Amino acid sequence: MATIASALGAGFCFSESRVGELKPNTHSAARSRRMVAVRAEAQSINPEIRKNEEKVVDSVVVAELSKPLTAYCRCWRSGTFPLCDGSHVKHNKATGDNVGPLLLKKQKE
User: Fold this and answer.
1) What are phi and psi of 36, to 5 degrees?
2) Which Pfam family, just one, is annotated for this protein (predicted)?
3) Which residues pair with 69 in a beta bridge?
């Protein structure tokens, strides 16, 4: 039976043995990765920048992009991070914040 390797938490590597118990995987230990989760739970991310605006969205024009428009997340809530999925709308309603995405726009030729 093959063992299934999985990473749990911040750099802990385990493999599933034949009887279903978890044991340290010595082969993956040397290559363990450190994961850091950043979440803005029930607090404002933007305490003072352009608070007079409903939503802070900045645009940057870039010469070489594969798509005409790419939105990057700045609320740290996106399920597709680093790309924006619109999660800032729920975050803004819950916290009274005004954070929005960074938009990269392809330069017109």
Assistant:
1) -125, 125
2) zf-CDGSH
3) 105
Can you tell me the distance from the alpha carbon of 88 to that of 90, in angstroms, rounded to the nearest whole number?
Answer: 6
Instruction: Compute the 3-state secondary structure of the chain and give helix, strand, coil in percent, each to the nearest 5.
Output: 10, 30, 60
Q: Which amino acid is at 52?
A: N
What's the angle, vertex CA 34, arms to CA 9 and CA 24, rounded to 5?
55
Handedness of CA 56, 61, 62, 68 (dihedral sign): positive
Q: Is the pLDDT of residue 8 over 90?
A: no
pLDDT digits (tens, 9 = 90+) for 60-95: 999 998 999 999 999 999 999 999 999 999 999 999
Q: Within a 10 A sphere around the Cβ of 92, how many other Cβ atoms? A: 21
Peptide bond into 101 cis (omega under 30): no
- The mean pLDDT of 22-51, rounded to a whole number, is 65
55 is catalytic: yes
